[in-house]
Amino acid sequence: MSKYITTPIYYVNGEAHIGHAYTTFIADTMVRYEKLKGEDTYFLTGTDEHGEKIEESAKKSGKSTQEFTDEMSATFKNLWDDFEICYDKFIKTTDEDHKIGVQKAFEVMYAKGDIYKGFYEGNYCISCETFFPETQLTDGEFCPDCGRTTSIVKEESYFFKLSKYEDRLLKHYEENPDFILPRSRANEVINFVKGGLRDLSVTRTSFAWGVKMPESLNDDKHVMYVWLDALMNYVTALGYGKDDALMNYWPATTHFVGKDILRFHAIYWPAFLMSLDLALPAHIGAHGWWTRDGEKMSKSKGNVVSPKEVADAYGVENLRYFMLREVPFGQDGDFSQRAFIDRINSELSNDLGNLLNRIIGMSGKYSDFEIDSVDVEKYHTKELDTMNEALSNLDGFMQNMQTHRYLEELWKLFAIGNKAIEEHAPWVKIKEGKKDEAFATVALVANILAKASIMLNPIMPKTTNIIADALNFTIDNASYEELVVGKKLLKLFNIKKVPPLFPRIEEPLMEEAPKAMPDDKPNDEMKEELATKKEKREEDNLIEIGQFFETSLKVGVVVEAEEVPKSKKLLKLQVDLGEDTLRQVVAGIKEFYSAESLINTQVCVVTNLKPAKLMGMMSEGMLLAAKDEDGLCLVRPEKPKKVGTPIG
Ligand code: MSP
Which of 205, 225, 267, 626 has the most CB atoms within 10 Å of its CB? Predict the structure, then answer.
């Protein structure tokens, strides 16, 4: 049976970061693994280019929307090409064929009675492009996904009868416990469905940058909801709605997604497929999120890890290895250069690289680089058995996407090899005249490296091909069948010298995550002085509680934000404090937050300060913020609160 593996299609309003690279690496690894096993496998990735947010980003860039999306989409495609990601198709949702497929699906659902026209009035989160029922809003007002304020939007809309599929979806989850992987993520989906599904609004009239309605409906006011459009990519890429040329690959084996978009893939997508009478994918594999040095990555913090930068510094295959080894699939992971360097030095350089160097060195010295497996079984049955056991465990780990366990198990092979060299000390055997034994140990290690490099190939394709070349064989399905499945040993060959594959790394090769204030960072002496002064002031200046309450502090929501021209530090904000009019607050936070990132976020405002003029603009409040040598962050309520809520 053929396999079909997909990544999410990436939004084009930002550049690729390591989170995107991670999904792409796992999918690419899985595809290479299946191909190694001889499976006919199709691999899809691409970009998601429609919707209000992208329309807005294009406007800001001053380019036409299509020009903008084409350029941004190319940055993803070029990156994956640089990384030699082995995708078969890179889909863009602005591709004509894709649009035709989405329209076709809409017509099919409509003809079936699963789509009807209605009128929507609901709480809409612009940022998530999603309507939420009242019951799901946090504190009756805020988006349950991103915490931003929702607004009431009323528009004519077509609806998909999601509610009709509730029971069938629940039955599917029950009968297919591996539909959502890891299984631990299934409950959140099941509970959501059990909580009751409302019909889904699947068109919009509030913006134009989307797939048009099918002509047969004669209703060009509407464009498709971006998630209907986006999810359909998994079948339009195979020719759905056009020529069905590749529909033999359907249903998908695995859609890899991040945990934040699991709901769309595990609820909406199967319901759409049921409506279209198409089979459901076998697995939705949901992975966790990556942080950097323990902190959430964000553009405003300037700490987003660029996969290109890491690959330029350390090599893309080392990055693949690190990411797939570091986190259990499904859990969140942290990127830190320290952890990265430690893994390269100890696991790649010490365990693997040294092993190869040792047998090249020994065979050069003792046998003129000739390696013969003839006596391996005679002297090393114990090692061969342990190795074969570890090899036979690998498939289960990969099928469950547990790449960290897969690699851990694979590394047992290098441990066997290193231990065999220590225990059997070929240099002693040579001195004792036991050449056969010495050669057998070297050949055992060569075989270990050969089998391990076949199984490591899906994760580190180029590096393992170099190892295989040194060991005089090619990594492909035939060698997998012979050396791994068939447990055969390498034929007589001459080993080739290779340059060190994993030179040790002593110092970080990339700049650390930017510290926000390099210029005005106080030195140690200044810090001490400031601390003493502060302590003194605090002793002298104790206040009564009443004095504290003279300060009026309230929760507000930033409604508008813009940069103050010619100012390095200032942003001008309009803040909703639940009063009749918005308050203008001019805040010195531009170095730490972009104007855009503040919109619809909550802030804590000192509301009874005398208004002050900053660069000619009136400021009617002050934001609470905390600043240390690592930068500044706004102080916000832990959970969204109603605007105007007093703080104290
Ligand atoms: N366009 C939608 C997907 C549509 S699929 C039919 C989308 N795009 S995205 O570009 O915002 O996100 C793509 C993927 O990146 C998602 O799976 C998301 O979970 C993942 N990540 C975004 N930030 C991430 C991290 N910090 N860490 C790991 N993955 C993260 O959603």
Answer: 225
Q: Where are the alpha helices (DSSP H) in 368-434?
A: 376-379, 381-399, 403-424, 426-431
Burial of 609 (0-12, 13-18, 19+ CB in 10 A): middle
- Give the range among 217-221, 609-613, 616-620 with minimum mean pLDDT: 609-613
Q: How far is CA 42 from CA 88, 253, 320, 549, in A?
A: 6, 10, 21, 65
**Residues 178-195: tens digit of each pLDDT:** 999 999 999 999 999 999
Ligand 1 contacts CB of residue 20 (under 6 A):
yes
CA 59 from chain center: how many Å?
Answer: 27
Fold for domain 335-494?
Answer: Isoleucyl-tRNA Synthetase; Domain 1 (1.10.730)
φ and ψ at residue 348, rounded to 5 degrees: -80, -50
Q: Select from 229, 208, 202 the least CA-distant residue to 94.
A: 229
Task: Evaluate: CB of 229 within 6 angstroms of ligand 1.
Answer: no
Among residues 634, 624, 626, 628, the alpha carbon closest in space to that of 527 is found at 628
The CA 467 to ligand 1 mean position distance, Å, reads 34
**Long-range contact set of residues 345-350: C-beta below 8 Å, sequence gap at least 24:** 345/502, 345/504, 345/505, 347/321, 347/411, 348/318, 348/321, 348/501, 348/502, 349/502, 349/503, 349/504
Residue extents of the structural domains in the chain: 335-494, 551-647
Is the shortest distance between the CB of 297 and ligand 1 below 6 Å?
A: yes
Cβ neighbour number for residue 489 with a 10 Å cutoff: 19
Report d(CA 256, CA 463) in Å as an integer.
Answer: 25
For residues 377 and 384, the answer to whether their CB atoms sit within 8 Å is yes
- Do 212 and 229 meet the contact criterion of CB atoms below 8 Å apart? no
Interval between CA 473 and ligand 1 midpoint (Å): 39
Alpha-carbon dihedral angle through residues 516, 553, 613, 591, given to the nearest 10 degrees: 10
Give the domain 551-647 fold. Answer: OB fold (Dihydrolipoamide Acetyltransferase, E2P) (2.40.50)
Q: Which residues contact 457 (CB under 8 A, 6 or more apart)?
A: 32, 36, 464, 465, 475
- Burial class (CB within 10 angstroms; exposed 0-12, middle 13-18, buried 19+) of 544: exposed
- Retrieve residue 319's tokens: 């990055």
Q: Which residue has the tokens 């365990």?
A: 351
Burial class, 61, CB count within 10 angstroms (exposed 0-12 / middle 13-18 / buried 19+): middle
Q: Residue 261: CB within 6 Å of ligand 1?
A: yes
Residue-wise pLDDT for 521-549, tens only, equals 445 555 555 455 455 545 555 666 766 77
Tens of pLDDT, residue by residue over 320-338, are 999 999 999 999 999 999 9
Determine whether 546 is exposed, middle or buried from the number of CB atoms within 10 Å of its CB (0-12, 13-18, 19+). Answer: exposed
Token pair of 648 as six digits: 């104290």
Tell me the three state secondary structure of residue 223. strand
Helix (H, G, I), strand (E, B) or coil at 426: helix
Dihedral (CA of 458, 461, 464, 468) sign? positive
| Residue that is written with structure tokens 């405002």 in the block | 605
Within 210-329, residue ranges assigned H as helices are 226-231, 233-236, 262-263, 269-275, 307-314, 316-326
Contact (CB, 8 A) for 458 and 412: no
